Amino acid sequence: MTFSLRVPANFNLRSTITSHGWCVLAPFSSDRDLGTLRLLLRPNGGKPIPVSVSQKTAAAIAVTSESTLPASAQNSVSQLLRSILRLDEDYSEFYVESKRQSGYRWVERAGAGRLLRAPTVFEDVLKMMCTTNCSWALTEVMVANLCRRFGEEGEDGRHAFPTPEAIADSTEKYIRKEIRAGYRSPYILELARNAASRKIDLESWRQSSLPTQQLYEEVGSVKGIGPYAAGNILKLLGRYDYLAIDSWCRKKFFELHTGGKKRTDKFIERRYEPLGKWRGLFFWLEVTKDWYNGQKAAWD
DNA sequence: GGTAGACCTGGACGC
DNA sequence: GCGTCCAGGTCTACC
Fold this sequence. Notes:
Blueprint: E1 2-6, H1 13-17, E2 29-30, E3 36-41, E4 49-55, E5 60-65, H2 71-84, H3 92-100, H4 106-110, H5 121-129, H6 136-150, H7 164-168, H8 172-179, H9 185-196, H10 212-220, H11 227-236, H12 247-257, H13 265-272, H14 279-287, H15 293-299
Antiparallel strand pairs: 1-5, 2-3, 3-4, 4-5
Helix pairs in contact: 5-11, 8-9, 10-11
The protein binds a DNA duplex through helix 6 and helix 11.
């Protein structure tokens, strides 16, 4: 069955899919031209079902499921997609600011800014942990292994991202050997156990009223989450005050602004300070602008 | 508060 | 095929 979901005026599905690497980490996937997002969703917390999303018109996206969904499941899938695709977040202030800044006028035309996120904060945090201190190829391996070993199987044979409970009963030794997570293994286990026992309420972070600095400190208090990971997690929570500089961004910044000459992170941070609470998003869009090159001609 | 070394894996490279 | 080196963030101990 296929049903449609209304989207905001400036929404662009392709830009959201390509906003960062989540679209290729299991259980997400996309088609070759990055126009369709495939994912496994648990409507009402139930069994995972495969869903694909594509955009045929500016006003709506088409949501397709192989099976017929009852109204409550359809409603739940819609709610999950609204959160994953950031449909309910207001970017009008960001777009006004982007038009004031030279070098960012393409942003609104591209419908860029909405960063794809997982159905749960737990999934976002665990995946972010798997991006630290390794190649992207290894991140893909670790996340795929987490799904394969701990995730419930969906109707199409793919595995959903595991719940905290599914990992909590495991052992550090098993995670090292089967997930290939190395020294991250105790951190993964601790996070899953703390989330499963409600010692930490990760899911409340998306609605948190804490000041951003305080939320950043809470996110950073998770073992295995340092400044880079915490800054990126905050972006997925809708807070863009931190740049979350990693080696790739650093290199890209030097290429764009210093002729390849290395500078300190403080130097980079000072450059984006005038962009206020949106600086993390401006920074990310600037260093990843090349990703949009294929579509840019249509936007300019 | 700042710094050094350890952590673990996969890829690149030389033999 | 094997061994060595390096890159990639975070944690911990130490100054």
